[in-house]
Please model this.
Amino acid sequence: MVTIKDIARAAQVSITTVSRALNGYSDVNEETRKKIVAVADRLGYSPNIAARSLISKKSKTIGLLLSNVTRDSSKDNIAFEVLCGMNDRAGELDYDLVLFSTTPQKQKTKSYKKLCNERGVDGVIIMGIRLDDPYLEEIVSSEIPCVLIDIPLKGPNVGYVTSDNVKGACTAMVHLLENGHRHIGMINGHTQADVSRHRLRGYIDALASYGIPYNESYVMDGSFSEAAAKEAMYRMHSLYPELTAVFCASDLMALGAIQAVKGLGRSVPEHISIVGFDNIDIAAYHTPAITTVNQHKYETGYQAAQLLVDLLEGRNVNRYIVLNTELVKRDSVRTIL
Amino acid sequence: MVTIKDIARAAQVSITTVSRALNGYSDVNEETRKKIVAVADRLGYSPNIAARSLISKKSKTIGLLLSNVTRDSSKDNIAFEVLCGMNDRAGELDYDLVLFSTTPQKQKTKSYKKLCNERGVDGVIIMGIRLDDPYLEEIVSSEIPCVLIDIPLKGPNVGYVTSDNVKGACTAMVHLLENGHRHIGMINGHTQADVSRHRLRGYIDALASYGIPYNESYVMDGSFSEAAAKEAMYRMHSLYPELTAVFCASDLMALGAIQAVKGLGRSVPEHISIVGFDNIDIAAYHTPAITTVNQHKYETGYQAAQLLVDLLEGRNVNRYIVLNTELVKRDSVRTIL
DNA sequence: CTGTTAGCGCGTTCAG
DNA sequence: CTGAACGCGCTAACAG
Model:
């Protein structure tokens, strides 16, 4: 490994001068700078970030706390698209990303805050963590700059990126209502996700705007999983045969629901109309193609990275970003009289 | 930030003693150790990895050099599944992952080797990089331990994880041949990927085993992209109407090929049979469901992480891992007489 | 068993 | 414009 000391020796100057020359300080002779840069290049020097961050307290590194980066989370590649957006923007801004191995159930012996401190990340982006996570509160209220995706917590140094889930859900519901559906069920995600609450609100609001009373038992838990949603759909169909449509709070759950409908010998959308949420890739290729609410996943990650860096570099920006969603009409909804 | 110095002061011992106590050295009194650990806990101490790695030259960090972690790579979530596998295993082994923002075309001013040196990663996993990448050779022949996924290069400290692409392609072809197809085209990925070469070999081998001469013009370039494959299929169909089946070197390209067939007013598998490769999630949900060669993506990542850590920790293991593939029969192939 | 000393690679006063 | 000296947080000899 070649250090500035090596360069200093080779260029016949002091270590300090090398440091200043390489960091673009103005108070160094243009001649010496050129010589130093040349030597550095020749020797293939690259600065040691560990040493640098030891002093500067900055590492140009963003920590990532994600769930859904484990086995069986591939279909739901939302996390991946968001990650792509973060990766792109972070790269442009010259930051690297470190993925914390947020071990699932395994004894999480270390708090998120400790994780960040140890690694010396400048800030952290958090996504997919449940609201009841034991370490969430701690890091959010710490001094570490955080950007939360779909998690509504306040803190001294936090930013927030989300989608307009209420409106999105509402639009999806209005679409069903406009198509004549009056008995509409909902399969929601678990309650420890903020989006579940918002999407439920959209469901309720849309119903209200059509003067339809909200029937709590029409809403079942699908826990954001295909299997759980499938089961919920089975129960829903036998308990409430009057339902002609079901709004699912994720496409993965829509997939499960459709399987249940098929399992019952019925079909979508002939017997039951289904609307999903997220617009995952499978939704478009599925038969029937699933009508869903598109979420800008890549953009979410991109904005989150941007916002975090803004926070890090002390820019005074809006810390609350809400992205649009839009209805994507496809073939899983039919019009009834 | 609380350091060992703080602990030393609070516990009335020297800094060294704190260091030894916390790092589990045997030569420290059980009494003092307990006291120190207690103080450390109370103060919420966590070690500064930057400082530690400055001395130990180890950072418990694995670098990741991936392509396909940018916009428009979501359908092809192979990278994501592999990433999940790496993340899981790395987590279990107590390593963190850092994603290098391997800026796409943008002026890659920094070589991969420099990237690794600066960040002080212990080793690096490389995937999706083209064989003609300018910096690939450099890092592979450096002292930095590397694990290459689907890249066949030798180096002093490299491991290699791949799938049996020849066999996989061969199995796919034999399936077509067994179903009576005799005029079979191939849409291959770009030549700067090792898997393309292997899959082509499988194609040729299978043909040979049935005594069918290899016709070079039956193989077209789809560059691993949906759009390029679509175009290739159009050309293929008009130039060689005798083809009854096409083997695509990726599912994404199979998707493109199918679109072209549809665009021609024909259908799969009635007019043309298609077999893909990879077994991406969409393949199962697509109509017709795509017959393909399954690749163990998660396992690939898992094994790559394991292998790299083995290399890092000096274990003498097999550095060459080849994972099985298997044919997944679905609905995109028909039997002809 | 414990403390003292030195130094990892770098940036930053403060004198020249 | 340049250099000597110091210290970031930590580990590793080397004494005692």
About this structure: The mean pLDDT of chain B is 92. The longest strand of chain B covers residues 61-66. The longest helix of chain B spans residues 194-209.
